[in-house]
Design brief:
Rossmann fold, 14% strand, alpha/beta, Arc Repressor Mutant, subunit A, 3 domains, 6-stranded mixed beta sheet, globular
Length: 382
């Protein structure tokens, strides 16, 4: 009989992202049926468990969040894959979310809704927050716009007080211009901002639109109003980490490189369901595109709804939205294709019909141009 490999998973189960990581690992294990898995209780940032020094297993998948965990693992002579952004051990393979891609999705989401004012609320103690901030600010600045920033203090920093930190965040939120789009580094931070808006009777999303990351569905639905959130491909991240570890345990040499996994998309809920465009004709055009993008419309279809010449319309649209009306239609259709690929088992021919393409081949060409991979490959990955 084939000998089972003994694998330990040092991943907390207290948040949606980590649980989805574990789900991806489990889905890979089912394909190999040769792992014996140990999943101990592990709190995020906890000290190394006492058993790890003498553990005689074959491999580990770990969220290496602290220097103490890093030092304990470096003493082991077995394969390890890291699934944390902390990057405490640079000489092992690392699988993590693509934070620049997450920030790009967030910025595009807000631009599609016509926002001209932007803000980012982050936690500088975490690399993933810093990388999301850097990418988001860069995109805002490229459009000659300002990004208002808030940096939360780490809970373990000297003199930290939850009440003082809450006052700092409240003062920042109240100082922002309206309407503004706030990108929060993760869902819990977005929930805190929503609470402040509710307490101070700030209209969400008309005055402040708020977007989180992780799509913790329970948390997002408990928010008032429900929170829009970027959906990271945590399941795929876990699965790829498990595959890498399996290859390492089978003797393959794996380069200690970063494997960054692109997000799936955005779950749009009420916290960003708004058009912040003062131009009535362009706002009308955006609503028409949003409602009809997958019905085979084109720019001529929009001009039947908007009392403007084509040249004036396209110029004003480009200035306000940042790209052409044709690109907006394409973006909406590609996003719908992405959603159907991930959430359904519909064949490509039916997805083409549902997204306004007469031919599957034309849909595939459009999707590949936007996403750099064909639809079938995108579905397999996600």
């Amino acid at each position: 009989m084939k000998k089972q490999k003994s694998v330990a998973l040092l991943i907390e189960t207290s948040n949606a992202y980590a649980r989805n990581l574990l789900s991806g690992i489990v889905s890979y294990i089912r394909t190999t049926d040769s792992w014996s898995v140990y999943l101990p209780e592990q709190q995020r940032g906890a000290t190394p468990p006492s058993w790890i020094a003498g553990w005689k297993g074959d491999g580990l998948i770990v969220r290496i969040e602290t220097k103490a965990i890093a030092q304990a693992l470096q003493k082991l002579k077995i394969p390890v894959v890291d699934v944390s952004a902390a990057r405490e051990v640079p000489n092992i393979p690392w699988v993590e979310t693509d934070d620049a891609a997450i920030a790009k999705l967030a910025y595009q989401h807000f631009r599609e809704r016509g926002f001209a004012h932007f803000a980012f609320c982050g936690e500088p103690g975490f690399n993933w927050s810093n990388w999301r901030e850097d990418a988001f600010v860069q995109m805002v600045h490229q459009q000659q716009q300002t990004c208002h920033l808030f940096h939360a203090k780490h809970r373990e920093s000297a003199g930290y007080s939850y009440s003082r930190e809450r006052q700092r965040l409240t003062k920042w939120v109240l100082s922002l211009p309206h309407p503004i789009a706030i990108f929060a580094c993760y869902d819990i931070k977005a929930q805190q901002i929503l609470d402040i808006c509710r307490e101070h009777e700030i209209d969400v999303p008309q005055q402040i639109a708020i977007l989180g990351v992780d799509n913790d569905e329970l948390l997002c639905d408990l928010c008032t109003p429900p929170l829009s959130s970027v959906i990271p491909a945590a399941h795929r991240t876990g699965r790829e980490a498990a595959e890498l570890l399996d290859r390492m345990m089978n003797g393959e040499a794996i380069e200690p490189l970063a494997h960054r996994i692109e997000p799936i998309g955005i779950a749009t809920r009420q916290s960003t369901d708004v058009l912040a465009i003062d131009d009535a004709e362009i706002a009308m055009a955006m609503r028409f595109i949003r409602d009809n993008a997958c019905e085979g419309i084109n720019v001529a279809s929009i001009l039947k709804q908007v009392p403007l010449s084509r040249s004036v319309f396209e110029k004003r649209f480009q200035e306000l939205v940042g790209h052409t009306p044709h690109q907006e239609i394409t973006n909406r259709r590609v996003e719908r294709i992405r959603q159907l690929l991930v959430e359904t088992d519909l064949p490509l021919s039916q997805i083409a019909q549902r997204t306004g393409f007469q031919h599957e081949e034309y849909m595939s060409v459009t999707f590949k141009k936007a996403m750099a991979v064909p639809p079938g490959e995108y579905r397999r990955k996600h």
